[in-house]
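Collaborator request, handled under Task 6.
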Amino acid sequence: VYSPRMEAVHLRGGKVARGGIRWSDRLEDFRTEVLGLMKAQMVKNTVIVPVGSKGGFIVKKDLKSMTREQFLQEGIECYQTMIRGMLDITDNLNGLNIVPPQRVVRWDGDDPYLVVAADKGTATFSDHANAVSKEYGFWLDDAFASGGSVGYDHKKMGITARGAWESVKRHFREMDIDVSVSPITVIGIGDMSGDVFGNGMLSTKTIKLMFAFDHRHIFIDPNPDPLKSYEERLRLFKLPRSSWMDYDQNTISEGGGVYDRNAKEILLSNTVRSLLKISKEKVSPAFLLQAILKFNADLLWLGGIGTFVKSSKESHADAGDRTNDPIRVNARELQVKVLAEGANLGVTQLGRIEFASKGGRINTDAIDNSAGVDCSDHEVNIKILLNAIVQNSDLSLENRNTLLEDMTDDVAYLVLRDNYLQTLALSIMQDRRVRDLDQHVKIMHELEKIGLLNRTIEFLPDDATLQDFQTDQEGLTRPELAVLMAYVKINLYEAFLATSLPDEAFFEFLLVNYFPKQLQKKYHDAIINHPLRREIIATVSINEIINRVGFSFVYEVQEK
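Structure tokens returned to the collaborator:
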């Protein structure tokens, strides 16, 4: 999309695709940025119905001279220009009939599915996108952009953090620790006003948050009281635009405090120095943060933007996040038992592999924080279903909105079940990783042969390394298995869709169970005729199979 005020690009991996629209500040190479994000979204979306897409736009005006309000207004208007540009050439639906866009010569087939999601810089823009959708009479109406004022509020539901907490619970359960009962020591990145950090640090009252930091402050509580600190975090979470500076210093244990990250140096108490094994009394904030990241806690919870851990083989440039170069550490220096990525790209993939190789418990960001995109997808598919019923005058818009709200807990249950089962699948595969290595090698070769997988790009081992694994009785690490699992799901999904299987009546029970219980009986017929019926059935089937028996099973059956 071109205009004198902005430029935009939107890429998708298939006809039914979803992903965020980013307000990019990379004026020179935003197309490259969007391509990278779209590829990552393809891998991430295996748990949901659409494949990956990504969009991005840049604003051409000089934003530095604007006030906050002018800056935001310019962004919104350029964002809406991008949306109009896309809808101008997108087919519409009227009932079951395709309505091609006016004054457009179509060389492709019918193609009415287009949805957008929030991303960096566009977190509050969903209503603006839906306003354009309404202006165009687009069939998806307010299902076009999820998370608007009539939709599921991710922060209110705490859904992304709750999904990542399922990963945390499983990691600790596998060490015979129940985090809802046993206290765990935590290092956190983020602050209590943030969605993922704030909700995550309220997951259980057993959290002993000893260290936390964001781009403004460093929080230190050497010996926290789990209950008192929980109450104080809850207060901050509810306080609009809070920061660590708002934390009640009287509830912090002896030797702790809140420090300015931009200070020249920080004076440390003896308690903190002995905890972090620092001999100097005064240190720079960067030195202190590196020591914190290397501290021997139970859990490192990543809830803020930035890449804080890389592998020892990578340079800081490889991490692609210049802001955090002064504090980033190597994965082999980490001493935490568990690392959870509530935010994206907290650790490089090679960093994850290095951490897992030395016994650390970690998945990938795509596994840990999939609940957000999963929740949005349920919202879109439920709205597609209900909007058709509203158009037939069998349901008022007001009642639809009430129904959406009433189903919040049921939607959360369906989403968190995916998080529970996906991490279970990884544990099963990790358990059999040495036994199944030959099968994993075959699968990688197969996926490369059909042009789906590039091992170099995805940091999967080459043949020589795999040969060593076989000799040394080793297998793929959990982060590597997570990536391979995503590609297997993409491959099987495409193969499944290409058959007539999704049209079989046998699979209808999976389609019905995808939706919350309140809809299953009352709108059974509408569900059976859902426009994305085939895609939903394919997604649910593939996820059910792989999440229960692992992906090697499918290939073993094929061979037999």
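The cover message to the collaborator said: "The mean pLDDT is 95. The chain has three domains: 6-149, 175-360, 371-559. Please let us know whether this matches your experimental observations."
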